[in-house]
Every structure is written in structure tokens, then in C-alpha cells.
Amino acid sequence: MSEPVPRVLIVEDEAEIRRFVSLSLEREGFEVHQAETLERGLIEAGTRRPDMVVLDLGLPDGDGVALIRELRGWSDVPVLVLSARTGEADKIEALDAGADDYLVKPFSTGELLARVRAHLRRRATPAAAGANAVGSAIEFGEVRIDLGRRTVERGGEALHITPIEYRLLTHLAAHPHCVLTHRQLLRSVWGPSHADDTHYLRVYMAQLRKKLEDDPAQPRHLLTETGIGYRFVP
């Protein structure tokens, strides 16, 4: 049997950009669906169940960040944001809401396709820490990472962990006591094109510490190695 064709949903109100992105993805062999509003985007995401969402933030009936937050309530599908907004605050807001990637307009076809392929590969591949440990778990303090079920609990209660947070946490946990540089983590979790985006790490490490550490200001397990990277101590 042949493998199923990946489905990509484009949510973009500018017809020319929507058509450009759609044609580029279709040439790569993807099945493409389109929406031009926030409301329609959520409907299409719910009915089509795409493997990837490509999203513009400036939609006529609302901000794309609201769509991400709504989507994250019931889906972990990778979301690649396409936006003309270049400010760090805009990027952090989208990523913090649950986006997996952020590409600034104008962008090249090659970079767009490379990022889509990378996210689809990661979606299809088990996390590095759990690739050979289905059904096993990692425990530290009150935290338990179930690698088979891809869930995280603290004190016996399930935590809401985003896909990016889960990949970052399990990658660190797979290398206990080792110092992992910013570049190593960015390449492993976000991909080679993000090797210099250290602000991604600051945002997600802060979120993980809030969820997992007793005192996020003085972490015991997710430690910062100043100017180098981070270290996981079980």
C-alpha cells in the first residue's frame, strides 16, 4: 500500500499569497486545502484533520493567534506562521500560543517547503528520547514523562504540554547531566534553519519551568548554563 499523502491547510486572506503557497505545496505532492478567514480555518481544521497548518496572522475576522489558541485546545498539528510582522514580541506571542514555527514575509519557496517537510518529518518520528523506549517513563521530582503515551504529569495530575515543549523536554531528558548548547537544542527541536533563534529557547524554557519546577526562579532540574545552553538534572 502507498503511504497517505500529507494534508496541508492554508489559512490566508490574500488570494495571491494563498495561491502561491498552494501551488508550491501541490507541486511537492501535498494535498492542499484553503481558508481565508479565522472561522473558516477552524472549520476546515476540524473537518479535514490536516497534517500541517500554514497560517497568516492578519485575518479579516480576527488575529491568527486566536486561531492557534483555539486549535491547541484539541489538536497538536504543527502550525507554521507566515506573517509580515517582524517584531520579536509578535513572534513570541505566536509561539507562546502554540505555533511551531514562524516565517516572515516575503519568503522563498525553498525555505517554505523545507520547513513544511521538516515539521512533517518530526510529526511522523518519535521523540528522540522515546524512540527506543515505548511504554517507558522518565521521572524526576514530582514529574513523570510517559514516553509511550507522550504525556507529562506532575503530582499525578496531567499537564498541558505543547508539542514543542514536549520535544524540548524529552530531548533534554534524553541527555541527563549533559550541557546542550543553544545551537544543539535549536537544531534538534526546531530544525537547522533556527540555529540562531535563541529567543525561542528562552520562551519555551520559561514555560517549562513554570509547569515543572517548584520554584521557576530557582530551578532544580532545568538549569541554565550561562552563555552556553541548558542542562537537565533528574
UniProtKB/TrEMBL annotation:
Keyword list, A-Z: DNA-binding, Phosphoprotein
Domain OmpR/PhoB-type: 135-234
This protein's name: Two-component system response regulator KdpE
Gene (name only): kdpE_2
Modified residues (4-aspartylphosphate): 56
Entry keyword annotation includes GTP-binding: no
Taxonomy, superkingdom: Bacteria
Domain Response regulatory residues, every copy: 7-120
Pfam families: Response_reg, Trans_reg_C
Organism whose genome encodes this protein: Ideonella azotifigens
InterPro entries given in the database record: CheY-like_superfamily (IPR011006), OmpR/PhoB-type_DNA-bd (IPR001867), Sig_transdc_resp-reg_receiver (IPR001789), WalR-like (IPR039420), WH-like_DNA-bd_sf (IPR036388)
SMART domains: REC (SM00448), Trans_reg_C (SM00862)
DNA-binding region, residue range(s): 135-234
Keyword Phosphoprotein on entry: yes
